[in-house]
Write a structure and sequence with these properties.
Strand content: over 45%
Radius of gyration: 19 Å
Strand order of the largest sheet: 2-9-8-4-5
Order of helices and strands: HEEEEEEEEE
CATH class: Mainly Beta
Low-confidence stretches: 12-17
Number of helices: 1
Shape: elongated
Number of domains: 1
Structural class: mainly beta
CATH architecture: Sandwich
């Protein structure tokens, strides 16, 4: 009886820990529905249970790796938009941690070429 209770307790503990991995991201730039030109600066902060291994920005199938800002939980990068047509687009941020837990968030933006 004690062994069964101990086994059930261990299974519950292991199972609850398996679901407690979190990745939360906050996109600072671009702002929602921002108008951009030839390039777009992307910046976001990530709070995660485990170390982050990959942060990608995806626009129309084009993938750009975002770089960590040393000494912080911030990632950033500049994306060239010269090969993308004008109009409404979606920036998708994909985040993966070292245990292959993932999350993503989308942000709509407006691309207007020759914006100065």
């Amino acid at each position: 009886m004690i062994r069964t209770c101990l086994l059930v307790f261990l299974i519950v503990c292991i199972t609850s820990n398996a679901y407690s991995q979190e990745i939360n991201l906050n996109i600072y730039n671009p702002s929602p529905e921002q108008i951009v030109g030839e390039s777009m600066y992307v910046q976001l902060a990530i709070n995660a249970t485990y170390e982050i291994s990959i942060v990608e920005a995806v626009i129309d199938g084009n993938v750009t790796q975002l770089n960590p800002v040393e000494g912080s939980n911030t990632f950033d990068g500049t994306i060239s938009l010269s090969s993308i047509p004008q109009g409404i687009h979606i920036l998708q941020i994909n985040v993966t941690d070292v245990l292959d837990n993932t999350t993503s968030e989308n942000r709509t933006f407006f691309l207007i070429q020759n914006l100065r």
